[in-house]
Amino acid sequence: MGRLERLATALTQLLTADHKVADEFRTTEVGERYAQALFDLASDGGALEAVRGDLKSLRAAWLESRDLRRLAVSPLVSAEDQQKGLVAIADAARFNPTTRKFLGLLGQNRRGRDLPAVIAAFETLYAKKTGLVAAEVVSAQPLGADQLKNIQAALRASLGKDPELSTRVDPSILGGLKVKVGSKLFDASLKTKLDQMKFALKRA
């Protein structure tokens, strides 16, 4: 059995267990409230898919842009500047008017720091409504078609359906994979293994 096949087997075993993981994009009480309001507005306005697409773009931007994270979380940024900044991002990205209005409200209330939680909670609401299962695969280098096929097969075996698969390259994990499905995480990254080894050596 090759390395990727072993990963796929381990992935199947882990995703059948109730394994919670701390993550930047995790739901919070505040995030759930804002996400519910946005979800209701988007549903009523027939813009659910468009808003979800906007939030996926915002998720990618949050991970890639220090400027966005600084705008959202810095205590030095006023509510007015945060509002203007988030609306400017929405305008530049040509987001749906519902998303634009929501980001303005988030900034006005100085809740930009809750954007990751809103995105996570919105995705949970969307999954409940549509039955969709989304999975994110993080690797140190771009994955090939055969590798993604094996991961997809492992997820299908575990979940009983084909997930909506997205990929992200993160060189900081050094090697291996991270696969997240909802609140479940399979972490076989080299960085995590090295961290675990360092911790074990310190305790020895």
State the main characteristics.
Dihydrodipicolinate Reductase, domain 2, 62% helix, Peroxidase, domain 1, 204 residues, four-stranded mixed sheet, 2 domains, alpha+beta, globular
Please characterize this protein's 3D structure.
- The protein is α+β, with helices and mostly antiparallel strands.
- It folds into 2 domains: 3-21 and 132-203, Dihydrodipicolinate Reductase, domain 2; 29-127, Peroxidase, domain 1.
- The chain is 62% helix and 10% strand.
- It has 9 helices and 4 strands.
- It has helices at 3-15, 29-44, 48-64, 66-73, 79-93, 97-108, 115-130, 145-159, 190-203, and strands at 134-139, 164-169, 177-181, 184-187.
- Strands 2-1-3-4 form a 4-stranded mixed sheet, covered by helices on one side.
- Helix 8 (145-159) links the parallel strand 1 (134-139) and strand 2.
- The longest helix has 17 residues, at 48-64.
- The chain is globular, with a radius of gyration of 19 Å.
- Residues 16-22 have low confidence and may be disordered.
